[in-house]
Amino acid sequence: MATLQARLKELVPQWRAERARLIKEKGDKVLTPATVAMAFGGMRGIKGMVCDTSVVEPDKGLFIRGHHLLEIMDLWPEQTFILLLTGDIKKLDDEMVREYQREMDKRSQVPQYVYDVLESMPNDSHPMCMLNTAILVMERESSFRREYDRGISKEDYWLPTLDDSLNILAKLPGIAAAVYRLRYNKGDYIQWTPGLDWGSNYANMLGIGDPTGDFAKLMRLYLHFHCDHEGGNVSANTCHTVGSALSDAYYAASAGLNGLAGPLHGLANQECLGWILETIEKFGGAPSEEQIRNYAFETLRAGKVVPGYGHAVLRVTDPRFTGFNKFGKEHIPNDPVFQTVDRVFTVVPKVLEEYSNERVKAGKGPIANFWPNVDAGSGALLYHYGLTEFDYYTVLFSVSRAMGMLSQLVWNRAVGTAITRPKSVSMKWIAESAK
Ligand code: AMX
């Protein structure tokens, strides 16, 4: 960890100086007004926090440290984490990447008590509940808590936070794979293979046969693509809020991932594939455009959302969807589930637009975005390679998203972000005082 830590030791003073300068020179500038509708609308559009790891442009999608996702599609997750943390793109054979991989090897052993806790959970527990419980139960290992109790200086908070983060990231593939094997009766756990990269290790520990190596390739892409989506989404924001109270990385990451477990957020990926498979089952094979259109309307008229479509920030096709679609076209163009996803993409945006117009006529608000998000297509790829238990998919998302949440946590500890405490108001106050 010496090289990564040394690089961060160069960067942290620069980040602190920049933060101090911005507060001094621009501290009284207004970022956005906060209207009554925004307060009722999940604070959508209120610029009220700072996140340097990534930015989501409504019309372009995700930029990680200034790099558009589709321009850095080939990064492996190890490189992604270093990029999130430092802003540097390191080659795979760079010493910092190698050292990080060795660090993962060193820290990868999942403690026996974690397996014991997982094994004692009811066998209908959701895989996300199992994953988040396992992370939480490891809190006793926190370097941050230990160092805090010893009286560490505020200036150094980020160091044990980095240590905790690496520990969590190294153990996550093993824990997540154990959840899979236990929950779906797949047999014995498969151990971490030293020297193998993070994504391939996870693929291998799941125990999905991978004769071509394409599943490992998909896992690396999947883990890279889901890593971060700026600071305000439910999981990142929750991890940040919990961490801002100086709760350690185990508390904060587990809390953030509990947010990811919601169907409007990360759980949408399980719902999406479910929806696609329902159409296939209902129509006895890959459905036609007309059948998809009818089924989409049926879903909407039943008061449900079409999963995988729409977004709180994006107003275009999510580049992560585009990237997965490219992978699908290259590797599994004839797969019927993948073909259905592709066909849904040609139909659903138009359906949502029509439905949005109906909503507006009926006096409701429009649907802000008709385009697919990250969750619309990834499930079909996983399904093709044999990962068919789709209520597990949010766990895969979580293993990846931990990189973003934890790098944000390290950054916030490094720059000394204050405890989160927005002001709430009552309806009475709004009625009487909002101008
Ligand atoms: N199907 C049906 N209705 C939709 C819709 C969809 N795909 N997307 C948005 N709407 C509806 C909303 O439910 C809302 O209806 P309401 O006023 O009756 O409550 C209305 O359109 C306005 O919502 P919005 O401003 O367009 O979106 P939002 O920012 O409030 O919500 C999101 C964003 C993602 C929750 C929403 O688009 C949605 O529910 N999509 C389907 C679920 C999904 O794919 N979630 C994954 C998001 C990505 C992720 O975090 N992994």
Summary, kept brief:
The chain is an all-alpha fold.
Task: Describe what this molecule looks like in 3D.
The chain has helices at residues 2-26, 36-40, 77-86, 95-107, 112-119, 127-137, 143-150, 158-183, 198-206, 214-225, 234-244, 249-260, 268-282, 289-301, 319-331, 336-361, 375-384, 393-415, 427-433; strands at 54-57, 61-64, 67-68. The longest helix is centred in the middle third of the chain and has 26 residues, at 158-183. The chain has a 3-stranded antiparallel beta sheet with strand order 1-2-3, with no helix packed on it. Helices cover 59% and strands 2% of the residues. 44% of the residues are buried. The radius of gyration is 22 Å and the shape is globular. With 435 residues, the protein is mainly α. The protein binds amidocarboxymethyldethia coenzyme *A (AMX). Amidocarboxymethyldethia coenzyme *A binds next to loops.
Write the topology of this structure.
Elements lengths: L1 H25 L9 H5 L13 E4 L3 E4 L2 E2 L8 H10 L8 H13 L4 H8 L7 H11 L5 H8 L7 H26 L14 H9 L7 H12 L8 H11 L4 H12 L7 H15 L6 H13 L17 H13 L4 H26 L13 H10 L8 H23 L11 H7 L2
Antiparallel strand pairs: 1-2, 2-3
The chain binds amidocarboxymethyldethia coenzyme *A (AMX).
Amidocarboxymethyldethia coenzyme *A binds next to loops.
